[in-house]
Amino acid sequence: MTPQELVDYKRYGLVVLTTAVFAVILTAPAGAILVNSMGKTLLTYDGDTKDMTKSDYKFKYGGDDEKETETGKGEEVEMTEKKETKMDQ
After folding, report:
1. 3-state secondary structure the chain
2. Is the pTM of this model over 0.85?
3. pLDDT at residue 86 is higher than 80
């Protein structure tokens, strides 16, 4: 390799590196905006509802009016119904 070829390759490498950095700088904000705006629509929880955490439930069904649930013997029992039956006794 001649010294001129080494200089040319170094220049080409700098052009590729600069292009890659600009590509990341330009596309990262667009990707973040898309994930924030379309994430709730496109991403869903496919697991069993009794395995959901409170944040998963709130994310899927939204709002603060989530139902507190308790899992017992493989069945899902609503806490409000359980509290009402205890009050009646």
Report:
1. CCHHHHHHHHHHHHHHHHHHHHHHHHHHHHHHHHHHHHHHHHCCCCCCHHHCCHHHHHHHHCCCCCCCEEEECCEEEEHHHHHHHHHHC
2. no
3. no
